[in-house]
Amino acid sequence: MKKLLLVAAITVLGANVNAQEFRFGPKVGFAMSTIKVDEKQDDLEKRKMDPKYTFYIGGMAEYKINDKFGFQAEVLYSPLGAKEKIDGVNAGGIYFGEQTKVTFGTLLVPISAKYFITENLSVAAGANFGVILTAKQKTVIGSDLISIDIEDEDGSGEIDIKDDIKKLNIAPFVGVEYMLENGLFFDARYSLGVSNLSNDNSGGKITNSFAQIGVGFKFGNN
């Protein structure tokens, strides 16, 4: 009987500890996104487009197995992408150039394993599974006197390139997080795009990588 009560007490205590180790909450932040294009995609030299500075917003859930290890899953939205400025020519004393901006409206599902260096400081490694919901490209041809948008049919200045882009962007990442005693936390991570996003059968490759710095709040007992 005593053994049975001891087992029951341990079970209840373990369930209580597990409940205390589950946390969830919102997070928002700043993202710097880049796109890398190889020479087979457009017959140009391999290049990395200029960074696009954007945001992300969503929520997270964390489950700690013990004092040192845990798992985290998130659902975020971010308009990732990149931009590029192509130097033009000087024709008759007038300079002509071209600027292009690509935007991937992406639903991100990061899943990671965490190691807690201290109670408040942790490092993480995992993978970002990004579902590209929308893909737009805006190109502006400009001169010293005037700029012209290359428009689509609705006159928005953006061209829908979703059919040219694959829907899944897998990006392994590493990151670090610091949490205050009240549940407020700050984190930073870098995700390396490894998926070829190009639907071009010529063998070209497009990858999207991004860095994130964010802030959030965890509900749950410490």
In short:
The protein is mainly beta. The protein has helices at 2-20, 39-42, and strands spanning 22-37, 47-48, 50-64, 69-91, 94-116, 121-143, 147-150, 159-160, 168-179, 184-191, 206-217. An eight-stranded antiparallel β-barrel has the order 1-3-4-5-6-9-10-11.
Instruction: Tell how many strands the DSSP assignment holds.
Output: 11
Report low-confidence residues grouped into runs of 5 or more.
Answer: 1-19, 144-148
> Helix content range of the residues, please?
10-25%
The largest sheet has its strands arranged as 1-3-4-5-6-9-10-11
What do you see in this structure?
By secondary structure, the protein is mainly beta. It has one domain: Porin (Beta Barrel). It has two helices and eleven strands, in the order αβαββββββββββ. It has an eight-stranded antiparallel beta barrel. Mean pLDDT is 83; it is low at 1-19 and 144-148.
